[in-house]
Design goal:
By secondary structure, the protein is an alpha+beta fold. Helix content is about 30%, strand content about 25%. It starts with a helix and ends with a strand.
Amino acid sequence: MQRVNIYKCALRLLLIILVALTVSCRGKGATQVAEFTDRAQTLPATITVVNWNAHKGKNPQFASDLKLLLEQEKPDIVFLQEAKADLFKPEQMGGYFAEGWSYPWPGGETVGVLTLSRVPSVRIDSVPTKYREFGVTAPKVSLVTEYPMPNGENLLALNVHLLNFERWSVKKISHQLEDLKTIMAHHTGPIIMAGDFNTWNQKRLELVKKIARDVKLNEVTGFPEGRRTGNTQSEFWNDVLGIEIDLPLDRVF
């Protein structure tokens, strides 16, 4: 009888944990996290962008590396995934943060996507996924912003973090990409779609490329070698998980 009660208590605790995780993963929309100090009202006709999965800032050199990159390249828009709202606040750039995951305990960090720019956005939308990874964990979230251009059009910018952990199916990311495609299809003007697409096998990559073709986007090429891939550094696990080690995860269209 005592053993049965222990099992019941363990099951009840597990259910409580799952509920807490599910509730904590609900996105709460987009919020402004940094002030805009540049007086320019439009982006330049030719822009420079940075796209980076911040991995929650766990690399101790991340902040200094990003600061140096911004000083050298002076990008107009910066797309960060797996970011925290207070991860980085550069001078001369404002930003918006879309929450995807919030740890369900006091002081737990909140993770999502962060888009920084030199001019304010005229549109800010958070787009959470319908599906969750493993059914209960974090939904991925995309951040949609628009920026005025000198010719009177608006640049639509999508900061994307695609769902992961679909070994044999692409059902979940297909749904996510279709939602983003609908947003892009209704826009008149230039579009940038950048982020961590988790394209660690050819099937996932082809799906992303098809969506890009459907809205007439071209992928940016010519990057130097050494881009981040899904390689686990283990031939066994790469085979088990279906990871093609030469496919970059981060892309810009």
